From TrEMBL:
Coiled-coil region(s): 173-200
Name of the protein in question: histidine kinase
Transmembrane segments: 29-46
Signal peptide start-end: none
GO MF entry, a single one: kinase activity
Gene3D superfamilies to which the protein is assigned, alphabetical: 1.20.5.1930, Histidine kinase-like ATPase, C-terminal domain
Class of enzymatic activity (EC top level): transferase
The keyword Secreted belongs to this UniProt entry's keyword annotation: no
């Protein structure tokens, strides 16, 4: 009972002394329009009450026009003024013949209109109290033959206003949820793009650093005492280092941006695979490429294949240094198959850390609907 009574008392307090909810619009011209309407209402009432004392006519005109002028920013205040004016009965000495309506014929129109505006802005509990108090006040003043229609009008406008308010609130809530969902989707897209770029950075940095390390480690064995050959090797290492730095700068620039642009990130494809293998061979890796000219794929699949081969070469360099590597590609109308096979190294050089290469490969292949198989063979190769 206490749970039910508390909301009811809150609704009563709202209509009697609670704070008003102003109209959402801040346009000054709207307030001016209602002020003019209130002035017109006051003049109409003043002219209608001919033969009554001037102070009474002014008071009744102000009581009729002020609620209209207070709209749309002070609905509850307007309703309270109208209710007080309705409850005041004129003494017989002031109005010997009485009034056709308790205030003015506009009163049965003004009170339901005020209930409607209250219903458009306040919660249901406040609307119920406003409708009940309005009908009770009108029932004490209206003739019996006018009472059913007036009370029905109050009830109808209260229900209509409450339903309209509920629908508008639901639409606003839905719009807010839609904006929130769109923002989350945009944020998720940005995070996914950044994760993709992070994988790109892993592949780019790992490959470049592996090739630089291989060139530096094998240079004493590959080069003779020819000074020009040594100079060329250092130039090649410096070029690979600059390429790695350029790729890293582009990727970091995208990651630092609020809206990553995929066009800024390196996006090689199948046509770049021979150059990739040639660079690895120049670094001292024993690599063989079998790449038929008819091998083609979409740009996304081609980029995935390139990164798979790049990571495979990096893994072979790090974990099986000196072991021969064979790369083959076959394709039909629906499938591109890439095979990277490296024999066992006679001097394995496992590197600490890592562990993300195969995971990145799996993610890339799964993103284009493919499958990845990686592991040792029965003959000790990979």
């Amino acid at each position: 009972m206490e749970t039910i009574g508390k909301p009811a008392m809150l609704g009563l307090w709202t209509v009697v002394a609670g704070r008003d909810i102003p109209y959402a619009s801040r346009r000054s011209w709207l307030t001016g329009v209602f002020v003019l309407l209130g002035l017109g209402t006051a003049l109409l009432v003043h002219d209608h009450l001919a033969g009554m004392p001037a102070p009474v006519k002014l008071a009744l005109a102000a009581g009729a026009g002020l609620p209209v002028a207070l709209l749309p920013r002070h609905v509850l205040a307007a309703w309270r003024i109208a209710m007080v004016a309705t409850l005041l009965n004129l003494p017989v000495e002031i109005a010997p013949g009485g009034l056709d309506w308790p205030w003015h014929p506009l009163q049965p129109v003004l009170l339901p209109a005020l209930v409607l505006l209250i219903a458009l802005r306040h919660q249901t509990r406040a609307v119920i109290w406003a409708a009940l108090l309005t009908t009770a006040t009108m029932a004490g003043h209206l003739p019996s033959h006018h009472l059913p229609a007036s009370l029905a009008a109050v009830a109808v406008v209260a229900v209509i206003g409450d339903q309209v308010r509920r629908r508008l609130e639901a639409q606003h809530s839905l719009a807010a949820e839609r904006k929130l969902t769109e923002a989350e989707q945009e944020r998720s897209a940005v995070l996914e793009e950044r994760a993709r770029i992070a994988r790109e950075m892993h592949d780019v940095v790992a490959h470049h650093m592996s090739m630089i390390a291989v060139r530096a480690e094998t240079a004493p064995y590959r080069l003779n005492d020819d000074r020009s050959a040594r100079d060329s090797e250092f130039v090649a290492i410096a070029g690979a280092s600059r390429a790695a730095l350029q790729d890293m700068r582009r990727l970091l620039g995208v990651l630092r941006s609020d809206s990553p642009d995929a066009s800024l990130a390196p996006s090689p494809g199948l046509t770049d695979v021979p150059a990739l293998v040639h660079t690895a061979a120049d670094a001292g890796l024993d690599v063989t490429l079998r790449w038929p000219p008819e091998v083609t794929a979409t740009p996304l699949v081609g980029q995935t294949a390139y990164r798979i081969i790049q990571e495979a070469l990096s893994n072979a360099t790090r974990h099986a240094s000196g072991a021969p590597v064979r790369i083959e590609a076959t394709a039909d109308t629906r499938t591109l198959t890439i095979t990277v096979h490296n024999k066992a190294s006679t001097h394995p050089t496992p590197t600490p850390g890592g562990g993300h290469g195969l995971t990145g490969m799996n993610e890339r292949v799964a993103a284009v609907g493919g499958t990845l198989r990686a592991g040792p063979t029965p003959y000790g190769s990979f």
